[in-house]
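Supplementary material to the annual report.
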Amino acid sequence: MVAQMIEDWNLVIGIEIHAQVNSKSKLFSSSPTDFGSKPNSQVSLIDAAMPGMLPVINKFCIEQAVKSGIGLNAKINKKSIFDRKNYFYQDLPQGYQISQYKDPIVGEGFVEIETENGQKKIGVERLHLEQDAGKSLHDQDPNFTFVDLNRSGIALMEIVSKPDMSSPEEAVEYVRKVRSILRYLGTCDGNMEQGSLRADVNVSVNKPGNELGTRCEIKNLNSFKFIHAAIVYEAKRQIKLIEQGESVNQETRLFNTQSGETRSMRSKEDAHDYRYFPDPDLLPLTLDDDWIKGLQETIPELPDQIKERFINEYSLSSYDANIIVSDKATSKYFEDVVKNRNPKLVTTWVTGELFSILNKKNLIIEDSPITSKQLGELVDNIENGKISNRQAKEVLEEMCESGKGALEIIDEKGLSQISDENEIESLVDNVLNSNPENVKKYKNGKDKLFGFFVGEAMKLSKGKANPKIVNDLIKKKLSQ
Amino acid sequence: MEFDKKSLLKLGKLARISISDDKLNNLSKDLNSILEFVDQLKEIKTDQVDPTSNSLYQKLEVRDDKVDTKNSAEDILENAPEKEMDFFVVPKVIE
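Predicted assembly:
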């Protein structure tokens, strides 16, 4: 539907991601960064911008920015500079935000995303460190705005993409991918609901062959769903304007999550209105080669590498591998289960049954009621033929409810599948001997009776016989 | 560099400082004389010098990621002209 509406148009999308550094204290002060604390309880004199305070940078935040840069395949700048970005707003007590302008800590890089047409490289322009602002509440009182400075001064990594995305789907994939990389690195928890990761999306439209259109920026999108919806709405709005002979104004817009519409926030002040200049309180940040090298060695295996390894080592399809590696906890869980087991079976049970249970219960894999060890035990019992797939589903559900192990439940319920050939052979003989008429009819060409024999044998075993062995034996006996 | 009245009004607006008409002339004159003074720096040849953001030859001091809560909400709100339920209270800001 989107495709139809914007068929003859190019979409050009660039994204700024604000990712909160996973630090205990703020970027330039020792105040805590805990979410949901009592208003203004995490504010130091530095965060409140009292006169004479000096910012001192948090070493951990520098490390996280560099690690993230490495994860984004980006150039690490050995010298970077902190600047003041000046603007006047009630949740910015300093009257300026300490940010990085011309010389960011991380330069150009890229991430690869999966699209309908295969892999696509999305350029990263830069990553820089900056302070978060406080929080304004406009709906507490008809005449006043309430300000909480707990967030003021928390370290953010702003990751700016190149305008390389051309559909809402690609934009969502890009944010997913960056989030996944940061989570693997442990530099940002990626919690979008709590605002640890939010996106500003720049959208413009143009006809193929024409020059780029005027872009609008939609601020503060904190879910994949909203990113998608905001881009669709905005693209349609701009196309409609142009088709009506009007023009698009360059402006900042807000997305209304209730109505699904964007509305104008304020004309974005020209960049130079921020009057950036190097912060005299902070010296340039210089990084040693050895120090960067040391950090490089701490970089864990990242999703792209794990994906490749899963495809090679376990013969997973690219599709399955993608699903599993998109989340660090999931790939860890998978890897725990798959060790010395059949990868295909494990993939099915993780991405199929386990995921559907988690979805139903609205749980993340870290809180899975079934541990990787427990699922492994279940898979073992399928693999060695003790229970059938159908029985295994029953066992899994029971495991979920009772927390008991697979084997315990199989024993309790008497579910254990009979795979012993001799035992099954006597069952089959029993069935064939008690139905001589049907055996005769079958041998005279009534093929359909095959199912009848299988059914009888299964009934006799109370459903426990391994159906494959039953099938094979009956086939063999009847052809004698 | 000439600092005209239009730039001055814009600067005032960005800083949320109102500048009355009768002060405009004098302020503009003052600012221009400051700029003229600073402009003398342009006489120095800098084409062989790397851009410098700070003239100190020191490394940036860093600190460990340790939490130290020095103030309570009460302390920090002590200087607030208006406060309520642990929030700073300011005139309504409409976006």
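The radius of gyration of chain A is 30 Å.
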